[in-house]
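Work Package 3 (structural annotation) set out to generate three-dimensional models for the target panel prioritized at the project kickoff. During this period the team completed the workflow that converts sequence records into discrete structure tokens, so that structures can be stored uniformly alongside our sequence database. As a representative example, we reproduce one entry of 228 residues exactly as it appears in the project archive.
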Amino acid sequence: MRFDLVIFDLDGTILDTLGDLASAVNFALESNGLPARTTDEVRMFVGNGVRKLVSRAVPQGTPDGVIEAVYASFGERYRAHSAELTRPYDGIAELLAALGREGIKLAVVSNKPDDAVGGLCGKYFPDTFDMTVGARDGVPHKPSPQSVSCVIDALGCERAKTAYVGDSDVDIMTAKNAGIEIFSAAWGFRSREFLIKSGAVRLYDTPRELMDALLADRDIADIGSQRS
């Protein structure tokens, strides 16, 4: 078996959280007298943590005090309504089960707040992951490799036998910074074209294609699903 550990991003990779994120963003904006955003706009704002999501969502020139109020409103709303529209992507449960049957350790590293990561993974994927890590005070967000490195060390694995799966340019940079291999999910929040421009080398359209690659040897995995 080639990989001993596979680390997943959360939003846009194993869970489609966009509906609940967009709902919380617009609740927070409108509660503070600001215009709402479209779902496609919110899709492009996600990936660098909640503070960056909020700063991208507010109109340019919004005072810092208002941004902080939007941030607080978003947090309150999302904590109470984070699992209303959210669902696993089709095929993810089967992918995780297949990797688990092969004895591969599974983890999640996300820029979403740590409590939300643990809560959502516990709800949708109980007893599946060996470790989940979200944003924590004093720890730099992805693309810093720090959280990924913590997971690798805590689970007693090697970088050479660790893969990272994500749907964004941030995930590509994270894996590069951590010195591990990246497998990009084209079913998530970023388009195939965007991911290719961001340096994606192994790009997969479905969890089944990704499963075949992760469970294959190096030559097959390198071929991937790189349709342009």
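DSSP finds eleven helices and eight strands in the chain.
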